[in-house]
Amino acid sequence: MAQRRRGMLERWPVELGSASLDVGWPGLAVLRCGWSFATWSYRGPTGYLQRQRDKVAGPYVLRSLLQDVPLSADGTNDDIKINCVEYYDEGFYVGTTASELLHFMRIPADPSDPNGAPAFIFASRLSPAFSEPSGVPNGSRPGVQQILLLPRVGKACILCNWTVTFYSLPELSPVFGTLQVKNCSWIGGVDLNDVGTDGDEPREVTILLSLNRRIQVVRIANEPRVMKHQLQIPLMSISSLDNFQTGGASGEVQNLSAGPDPGLTRSSSSAMTRPLLAPGDPQGHGRSTSLGGFISRRHDRQMGEPEDPVFQEPDSPAPSRSHGPGERSSSQSRANTDKPLPTPPREPGAGLAVQTAGIPPPARVASPKPGSAFLRPHIVSPTPDEFLIVTGTGPLDPGIGMFVNLEGDPTRPTLEFERYPREIVADGGSPDFASSLGFEEEGYVLASMAREFEDGLHHGLEIQRFDVNVGEDEPEKFWLELATNDSNGTSPITPIGIRSLLQSEEMQFREVVERLCQRRFSPFMKNPDTPPMSLKSMDSRTASSMERQSQEKELFDRDLESDEEPLPADWEATRNREGEEFVRGLAKGSSRLAVWAGANIWWAVRNPLLVRLESSLELAAVPDQQSATHSLEVREQLFALLDTIRGRDARTELEFMTLGYVRQKASIMLLARFLDSSEPPFTESETTAMEQNLLDGDLDARVVLALIPALRNEIVVDRIGIWIYGGVKAVVESYISTEEAGPNIQTVGSLTPSVLQFLKRFLTAWRKKKGFGSIPGEIFRTVDASLLLVLLELDQNTPKGQLGKTGSVRKELYNLVDNGVDCFDRAVDLLESYHRLYVLSRLYKHRKMEADVLATWRHIIEGEEDRGGELGDGEQRMSSYLPNISNQALVKEYGIWLANRNPKLGVQVFTDDRGKAPKFDPTQVVAILRAEAPDAVKYYLEHLVFGKGNTAYVSELITYYLDIVINDLQSSPASRATAAASYDAYRALRPPKPTYHQFLTDNAPPDDEVWQSRLRLLQLLGGPHDYDATAIRARIDSSLATLSEHTQETKIEQQQQQELLVPEAIILNGRTRRHEDALRLLVHLLGDYDTAVSYCLRGGSSLSASGPGRRDSIPTRETQTRLFRVLLGEFLAIDDLSNRVEQTGALLERFGGWFDVLEVLSLIPDSWSVDVAAGFLIAALRRIVRERQESRLARSLSGAENLRVNYDLIVKIDEKGPVLDAGS
C-alpha cells in the first residue's frame, strides 16, 4: 500500500488554480482553497461502501441550523445559492450568489424546556459594495465569495464580486469610509494560532489579499495599513520558485521585494489568483509538483506591467443595507489593463468543478480549450505542523490527499477520494461527548463530492480518519448524505457545501440520555424481594456454618431496617427523574462545521460514541442464525468492538459513563454465550478479555452472579436495590427470562473448571474495590460468600507447601482473608476444618486479634506443623506486622524475641515510625538490646544515624565501625593486602578519576560486612558531624602501630601497614587542621590531585562525602595561599618526572593568583623548560601591570580629591572672611 501511495504522489502532480493564501502559524504562508468537508467510506480495493443510512452509525450526523433561508427579499430563491457562511458571537452570516450578506441572530433556548434548542432569527440583509470589472457579463458575478471575521479588532472583511469591503462587528456598519480593494480573488491569511482568541485589548491583525499580480500583506487595526513587501510561500518544492532560489533557509518566509532580481515583484502565491487550465492548454502549467514553472511563465508575461494600488475609492457611492438583490447598486471599476476572464464552461456534474463563486477576477490568461475543467486546489491545516494538499486530474477522477510538514516533506500516508472533492475541511477538535475511538483526539477529513449509486448521482460528505496508521488495509470511510425532504426541497442530488466556522455551537443528545439513565434491577424475576439464603446448594460440611450466617444476616437486616427511615412512596420515580437530569447535563456536544444545501443549513456534529457503538451491539445481538459459525462471528464482533475502547482513559465524565456502558453491555452478551453449554467453548484469551471488560465496565458483581443459578441465591440486595444502566438492565433481564422454569438446584462443585476459574478471577478482582465510597457494602457480602466457596473448591488441588504465587488459587485465598470477609465465623470454621493455620492467622490479623496472630506465627516458626506449609519467611512477616500493633508490651515481647533470632528485623520493630504503639525512647532501646539482644545494637544505631538522622550516636557508631575494620585488619593478612592493593590501583588511574570513596564504593563486595562498615565509617567521618577527631586518629594510629609490632614484616612493610587507613587519616587530618599531612597523603599515597587542589580551596570540606562541610572549615585567603604553597612543594616532590611536570604546570596555570612569582621561580628547577610555567608567568605579568595601572589611577583619583578638598576649604575661608583678633 505504501508503494501504491508513492506512485499516486508521482502520478498526481499538485495543480493550483483559483487558490488562496493563509498564514497558518507565525511567519508561515499556507495555500488553501476553501473550507468544505466531505467524506465517503469504503473498505479495501473493492470499494465497499458503508453508508450512514445503514444500521452502523457514522462519525457525523446533521442537525438543523437554518431551514428555508430567505435568500432573496422577494422570496424567489430559485437562482440564488449560498456561497459561504460564518458564525461568531451570537451572529450567523450567510453570503449568497445574489451579492447579499444575510445576518441572523441567535436566540437562546427556553431554560424551562430540557429538550429545547436555540433558534436563529433574521436580523438584516446587507448588499456589500463592489466594483464590477470591465468586460464581465452581469450573469457571471459570483456574489459574496468570502466572509472573514476579525474579532480581535472588531472588523469584518467581505469579498463580494472580487471587491473587498470592511465592516464593524457585530452590526456590520461600514468602516474606513468608502475604502475598497478591487480585483481581489481571496482574503484571509489570519494566524490560525490566534483564531478565536481574545486579548485584553484590541490589537492589529495581519491578513493577506490575493490580487491580480501579487499577494498583499495588510494590517488591520483602527485603519488598514499596507505592508511594503511580498512573501514567498515556504512550502519547499511544492510552492518554491524553481528559477529563483536564494541561499536562504527553506521553510522560512522570504522577502522577495529585496531579492537580487529586480524584475520579480510578485509572490509565488500569485499563481493562486487565477484558475488552472486543463492539461494540454499551451498557456497552462505542466504536470509538475512545483509551482516554479507556472510562476515563471506568469512572470515573463507581466514583468513590465504597473501595479494597481491596494486600497481604492469606489466609482460610485456604496449601496445601502436596505437594498435587495434586485435593487443593489454596484460600482464600475476603473479602466483595467487586464483582459476579462472568459466565462468557464459549465458541464453536467459541475458540483465537482469550481463554482462561479471561486472564479478569480480578470487576468491575462488564455481562454481554456473546449472540454477543459477547472479544479480548485484544496489545502487545509489539520494539525499545527501539517498541511493536507488534495490534487487530481479532473472533477470525475479520483483525488489524492497528501500530508506534508512545514518543510514540505510527507508525514502521513496519503488519503484517497473517490472523486475530486468540491470542498474539504479537516476536523481535529474534541467534542464534549468524546466521540473518538482511539487513544488520542481523533481527526477527520470531510470532503463534499458526488458519487454514483444504483439510483443515480448522489451528493454527500465522504468522511475518513486522517490520524490512523492504516498499514496495508484501506482506511474505513463513511458516506453522509441528505435524506429526501419535499418540505425543504433537499435530496441526495442537491450539491452540498461545508465550512469550519469561527465559533462552535453547543447541543444535546436525547438518545444518550435514554441509554445512560440508571434503572432498578432485580435478579429474582419471580420475586423482586431478596430471598432468604438457600442452604440446599451448600456442601454438608459447611451447611451448619451457612445456616448460622443466614441467621446473622436476617438479624442484621432487621436491625438495619428498623434504624432507617422508610422510603417515600415515589422514591424510585424521583430517582429516575434526577438521573435523567444529571445525564442530560452531560450529554452535550459542540460543533463548528456548517453544511448547507439549497436554502437549508445544518450543523455537522460528531456522532456520540455511545450511539455509534450501540449500533454495533444491536447488530451483534440480532439472532439471524444459530449455527456455530454464526456464534463465533458474533463473538468476534463483540470482542472487536471492545478492543476499540480497551485501555482508553476517559477524559470526561460522560465518556467514562459511555465506555462503561458499552463494556457492560457487550460483556454481558459475551458472558451469556460463555455460560451457554451449546456455544463453542471460549479460548483462554477470550475468557481473559471478557473478564477484563467486565471489570473495566464496573458492572455490579451481583448482576454477573444473577446469570449463574448456582450462586444466584448468594446475592444480597438491600431495600434500595441494584441500579444499572437501562440498556444493560434490559439485556440481563432478557437472558434470565429465557431460563427454564423450576428450581435451579446446583452446587459449586458442579460448575465446570472454566466457570470456576472465571468466577475466581472476577470475584477476586471485585474484592479489590472494597472500600470505594461509590460501591455499596452489600455487594461485598455477596462477593465474599461466593468467592470463598469457589476458592476452597479450587484450592483442594494445590500441592502441600506450595507458596501463594501471583495468580494462583492460594494467593487469591490469601487476598480474600487479608482484606477481610463479612462472613467471619464461617471462614474460621472452614479454615479449621482444612487445618490451614497460616491462612487462619491472616484472618486473625484482619480482625485485629494481634495476640492470636503472633502466637500462631510463633508456633509455626518454632516448628509446629502448618498443614499448608506456606508461611514462608515468618520472621519477616512478623517484623512487618508488629508496627501495626498498638500494644507496647506485645511489641516489646515479640520484638526482643525476633531480635535474638534476626537482629536486623528485630531492630526494625523499634525504629519504625509507622508503629501504632507508643514510641520507644532510643536510650531505653539501646539499654534493652544490650541486655537481651547485644548483636542487634549496631543495627539499631545505624537506623538512628542513617535512617532517622539522629547525630547523637555518631561517635558511638564510629566506634563500632572502627572495631569491625581494625579487628579485620589485625586478624586477616588478606584484608591488609587488599587495602594496600586498592591504593596502588587507585594511584594507577589516569585523571580525571573519581574520589577514593567512590572508587571504594564501586569495587566493594555487596555482601561483605567489613567493606560496608568501612564505607559507612568514611561517610560518617566525612559528614558534617561533630565527633572527637583527635581521639579517633589516636586510636587508629595506636591500633595500626600495635599491628606492626606483632607482625614479622620488614620496616618498609610495617610503615605501609601504618598507612592502611589512608582516606580516614586524610579526613581526620583535615578536621584537626593538619593540612600538610592531608595534602601529603592525597598527593603521594592516593595520587588524587584534583581533591588536593580542592582541599586547598575549601579545606576539610572538600573531603565531605555527604554534602558541604561546616562553615568554619572553609580556609581564609591567607590559609589558601599557604596550602597552595604546600601543594606546590608536594607536586615538586612527585617521583614520576612527567607527572611532576604536568601537575606542577597545571597548578601554576590555573591557580597562579595564589603564588608569588619570585618564590615560584626559586622553587622550579632550572632544568625545566619555560613552557611549564609560561601560562603562570604571562598571567602574573598581566596581573602586575594591571595592579600598577590601578595604583596610578588610585593616586590620580586621590590627587583630584585632595584638590577638591583644598578648593572647598578656600571657598569656605573666603565665605567666612577675615577674623580680627582684638587681643587684650
How would you describe what is shown here?
The strands form 11 sheets. The protein has a 4-stranded antiparallel β-sheet. It has a 4-stranded antiparallel β-sheet with strand order 6-7-8-9, with no helix packed on it. Strands 14-15-16-17 form a 4-stranded antiparallel β-sheet, with no helix packed on it. It has 36 helices and 33 strands. It is flat, with a radius of gyration of 45 Å. Residues 1-55, 234-307, 316-368, 429-440, 530-546, 558-562 and 1105-1109 have low confidence and may be disordered. Helices cover 39% and strands 15% of the residues. α9 runs parallel beside α13 (753-767), α24 (954-971) packs parallel to α28 and α31 packs antiparallel against α32 (1089-1098). With 1224 residues, it is an alpha+beta fold.
Question: Main traits of this protein?
Answer:
1224 residues, alpha+beta, 4-stranded antiparallel sheet, 39% helix, 15% strand
Summarize the structure.
The protein is an alpha+beta fold and 1224 residues long.
Question: How do the helices and strands line up, and which of them pair or pack?
Answer:
Layout: H1 2-11, E1 20-23, E2 29-32, E3 42-43, E4 48-49, E5 60-66, E6 82-88, E7 91-96, E8 101-107, E9 119-126, E10 131-132, E11 144-150, E12 155-160, E13 163-168, E14 186-188, E15 205-210, E16 215-220, E17 224-226, E18 231-232, E19 254-255, H2 292-302, E20 331-332, E21 378-380, E22 386-392, E23 399-405, E24 415-417, E25 423-427, E26 444-453, E27 456-465, E28 477-481, E29 497-508, H3 510-516, E30 518-521, H4 540-563, H5 571-586, E31 588-597, E32 600-606, H6 609-621, H7 628-644, H8 653-675, H9 684-696, H10 701-705, H11 709-712, E33 722-725, H12 726-737, H13 753-767, H14 778-794, H15 809-818, H16 824-834, H17 837-846, H18 850-861, H19 874-881, H20 888-901, H21 903-911, H22 922-932, H23 937-947, H24 954-971, H25 973-988, H26 996-1003, H27 1009-1022, H28 1029-1045, H29 1051-1057, H30 1062-1071, H31 1075-1086, H32 1089-1098, H33 1117-1132, H34 1137-1150, H35 1157-1163, H36 1174-1216
Helix pairs in contact: 4-16, 6-7, 6-8, 7-8, 8-9, 8-12, 9-13, 13-14, 13-15, 14-15, 15-17, 16-17, 17-18, 19-21, 20-21, 21-23, 22-23, 23-24, 24-25, 24-27, 24-28, 27-30, 28-29, 28-30, 30-31, 31-32, 31-33, 32-33, 34-36
